[in-house]
Amino acid sequence: MSAKDVFHNAVKNALQKEGWLITDDPLFIRFGGINIYIDLGAEKVIAAEKDGEKIAVEIKSFLAPSAISEFHLALGQFLNYRLVLERQDPERILYLAITVDAYDTFFTLPFTQMAIQHHQLKLIVYEPETEVIVQWEK
Predict the structure, then answer these.
(1) Helix 67-88 and helix 110-119: axis angle, to 10°?
(2) DSSP assignment of 63-108
(3) b vs e for 52-66, b when ≥16 Cβ sit within 10 Å of the residue's Cβ?
(4) Is 119 exposed, middle or buried (0-12, 13-18, 19+ CB in 10 A)?
(5) Number of C-beta neighbours around residue 15 at 10 A
(6) Count H helices, E strands: the chain?
(7) d(CA 31, CA 38)
């Protein structure tokens, strides 16, 4: 299992503030001979008589000098995790959680926007200091 992202607790707290129940920290999946650890699993009950919404969240800080290198790693991880979730837990939606600073400086660039659209990435944009979710991109 890899180390938690520096903003792991900030994202966890932000989700809880929005009414999400953290069910897995981390979300463990064994599939195809490998172990996968997605940072968080969470559920939100929509209504008493309906099934709740289930998500998985991979958290990335984008603090390294090369945002494009971090993006390559995050994208590869995201695509592999989504592939496994589609087979193992298809009702769970995968999100990539990124800081508002990373979003404003890198994720709004034309190349990054094209990659997000092409790969159908779902994003949670959060403010790490106040531990709030600023935006959901579904």
Answers:
(1) 10
(2) -SS-HHHHHHHHHHHHHHHHHHHHHH-TTEEEEEEEEHHHIIIIIT
(3) eebbbbbbbbbeeee
(4) exposed
(5) 23
(6) 4, 8
(7) 13
Are 137 and 123 in contact by the 8 Å Cβ rule? The answer is yes
The model carries a pTM of: 0.94
pLDDT for position 2: 62
The rounded distance, in Å, linking the Cα atoms of 32 and 9 is 30
User: How far is 42 from 39, CA to CA, in rounded Å?
Assistant: 10
* Residue the block writes with tokens 């991979």: 58
Q: In the structure, what pLDDT confidence band is assigned to residue 3 with cuts at 50, 70 and 90?
A: low
Q: Which of 131, 132, 113, 133 is nearest to 121 (CA)?
A: 113
Q: Read out DSSP for 126-137? A: EETTTTEEEEEE
Q: What single DSSP character describes residue 47?
A: S
Residue type, 108: T
Nearest to 71 by CA among 83, 82, 88, 58: 58
